[in-house]
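Quick entry, no commentary yet.
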Amino acid sequence: MKMESGTNSHAMRYIESGQQRKHIVSKHNQQSETKESFEEMSLITACLTYTGFYVLLFTVYINKLFVTQNLQTEKQRDGYVPLYDTFERFYVTYMFRRIGDIASIPFVGVPGAFITLKDRITTDCGWNFDFTGTETRCLNLGSYNYLGFAENSGVCAENTIKSIESYALVSCSPRRELGTNSLHIELEQLTAQFVGVEDSIVFGMGFATNALNLPAFLSSGCLVLSDEKNHASIILGLRLSGATIRVFRHNNMGHLEKQLQDAIINGQPETSAPWKKILIIAEGVYSMEGSIVKLPEIVALKKKYKAYLYLDEAHSIGAMGPRGRGVVDYYGIDSNDIDILMGTFTKSFASSGGYIAGSKVVCHLLTRSF
């Protein structure tokens, strides 16, 4: 989150220039039907894939029976849980090793738009690798660096160096005491302005932004309706909150509405008392699926049933919408229709940390929640 102190307009131009470089956004009418863009797998492709996998599985199992690998065994482990379960150990040792030459390849330099890999060979089926002394430059398609800002030269790197020289690396104090400096204030104002809400509060770790802040919004007697594909940080935060958690099928608005209706009609288990609050949690772009949330439909349901909405824009902020302001911008929805906006600086913005954005009441609650 290092940023040279300067005008907000300069930073805004800097962020939006990244959008022009990438050309990965397109306008989307809020009233248009949301459609998934995944290509359906044909039956023959699925059959061939599974057949190849099971042939390999059978082959390596036969190999395991007749070929001794001289593997080390765990010693003095009585009373301890095994480090690996049976299938995991079998898969890593006998299957994954066979494709080890194309996995976990060392690279050199900065993994920007392109990445340079160190070439290597194996002569013993993946047990050992030797470097050849050559390198291969490849297009990087496996990175969160959506806008190409994560480089060791350019505006990001230069401003980071200047801010370190001016403010040092750490403050050695919690923010509530002596740890807040002008960069925090500027970043929070800029973030709120960028996403179009009243205020924001920033944190040092993206995962913790979900995991440690959700318990501040929720407690026993609250109900959470969570998409089944939500990130592990959300799941951890919900478990810590003490709230009741119900999962709806991925991007299934019919199932979500049924859950809302049941929650309002039946209330809390045993007592049937009304829920203190009902919170819907979804991601803008789902990190493990790549699918886009059906935000217009969720906002409509949230308003219809008087629920709250928490939107995780970790993978969509900076990479979606005409101005790069996430799925809210992509659909042309008013940011104030989302009660709590969460995002990270670790993806498109090539930094670290996360933010919670919304009304001043929401951010004030977080600053007084510990």
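second:
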Amino acid sequence: MKGQSYIILAIVFALLVAIFAVINVDPVQVNYLFGSGEAPLILVILISVLMGGVITASVGALRYFRLKRDYKNLEKKQDTNQSAVAEGKQNEEENSAERQTVE
């Protein structure tokens, strides 16, 4: 159901963009760092949206990989702690067995 919601939302968004594209075909002046030129308004808007999406996706991917690395480190730490606890319990059992034989 969640996947269908995303598909429907994507179709609605694509429809809105198509309508917006048909309405905004007027050329606008675009000033670059190295010059200027004219481009259709929808092209300027779409490129801006795509650049924003790429930047957002990049930040999200970096966060995902950092969290994944942290998760692996925590798993290793947990394994180390669990083995230390198991070793401590084993030593405790051995010590209590030795005490019982001494008494």
